[in-house]
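Hi all, posting the design record for the shared folder.

TITLE: backbone redesign
STEP: 1 of 1
STRUCTURE INPUT:
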């Protein structure tokens, strides 16, 4: 699940019980650390981080453990969400994968992997973020977005609308977080996961912690 980028702040949230299980809503407690993972910090430089691990500790809760990824990351991806989200936005705008590859400065196989994984779950992602928009925009008039011409474009447009609703609900603190990081947080870090993210519940739970 996605958390803030300050390890000390995340630790304090975890100890004080502010972090909740995205599966059942139970209180998360410290549970060691995950293994080292690589994250591309810029250009070709690859750094390493060791994310915190937490466990659902509520009586009668699910008891599942979760890796707490800083919101500039996506699950099982070396590249930061800012680069990946820019590629998806460009694809939605009609760019071909070769042009996107050049703009991203990443291997063609990597970029095509991002696009194909997002495309595979585009409709589920669109529906999830539409539900998130409705939950975060209580009291507002929510109109279905006009079709954008492709599954990826439709999903990207809806992701943007859902995250904009979360920003409005969260106020000034959320507006200080970059748009790609809001996308990562609202998807629980699984925008390009092997299964569609549980967007609505995760997005609403993440809003107070962004």
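Okay, here is what came back for every position:
SEQUENCE:
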């Amino acid at each position: 699940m996605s958390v803030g980028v300050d390890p000390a702040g995340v630790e304090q949230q975890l100890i004080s019980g502010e972090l909740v299980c995205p599966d059942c809503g139970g209180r998360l407690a410290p549970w060691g650390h995950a293994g080292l993972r690589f994250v591309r910090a810029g250009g070709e430089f690859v750094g390493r981080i060791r994310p915190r691990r937490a466990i659902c500790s509520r009586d009668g809760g699910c008891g599942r453990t979760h890796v707490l990824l800083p919101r500039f990351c996506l699950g099982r991806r070396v590249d930061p969400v800012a680069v990946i989200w820019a590629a998806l936005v460009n694809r939605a705008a009609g760019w071909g994968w070769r042009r996107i590859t050049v703009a991203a400065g990443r291997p063609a196989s990597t970029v095509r992997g991002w696009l194909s994984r997002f495309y595979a779950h585009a409709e589920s992602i669109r529906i999830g973020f539409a539900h998130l928009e409705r939950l975060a925009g209580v009291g507002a008039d929510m109109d279905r977005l006009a079709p954008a011409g492709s599954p990826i474009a439709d999903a990207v447009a809806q992701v943007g609308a859902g995250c904009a609703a979360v920003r409005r609900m969260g106020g000034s603190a959320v507006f200080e977080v970059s748009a790609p990081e809001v996308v990562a947080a609202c998807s629980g870090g699984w925008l390009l996961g092997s299964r569609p993210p549980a967007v609505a519940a995760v997005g609403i739970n993440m809003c107070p912690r962004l």
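COMMENT: The chain has two domains: 2-70, 81-209.
Let me know if anyone wants the other runs.
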